[in-house]
Design a protein that fits this description.
Aminopeptidase, globular
Length: 178
Amino acid sequence: MGLDQLNQQTIVETDRFVLRPLRPSDAGLIQHYASDERVARMTSIIPHPYPPGAAEAYVKRAMAAEQGEIIWAMDGTKDDSPELMGLISLKTMDRNQSEVGYWVAPPFWNTGLASMAVSLMVEANPLGDATMFAAVFQDNPASARVLAHCGFEYLGDAESFSVARDATVPTWTYSRKL
């Protein structure tokens, strides 16, 4: 793995893919994948249906990096895969902590991509965090397995509002000391 700095955002490279900052050309694939109800329903922030122009606005906010969240594209072009296979983010919290969020496009489910991306994020620890947190919906045990596989420990049950479901959904919360 190699680390590089570009526009204050760490780039993490592996043999299979690169975690890199978002760029305007990502909007089309973000629009395509985020429009899939299966993706939207497993996140708290993606609406369904996904509105026109939402992906462009999302990329613009991510590139501004002023919202307290840093977002990386899972870019597979290094391995002749698509330019965007999913997203992973770190949302800054107080006391040297952050919250990990991620989604993987359906064609790449059950390929180990999410586990590898989360592991790389933990290993790189680009914000120098002491602790990372993550929460997954309880009806998404695959994401819970990703976190457990990456050394996150179960903290307890909670709930979070899902925009796509227009409902409060039970979650499992995890943390990882770094």
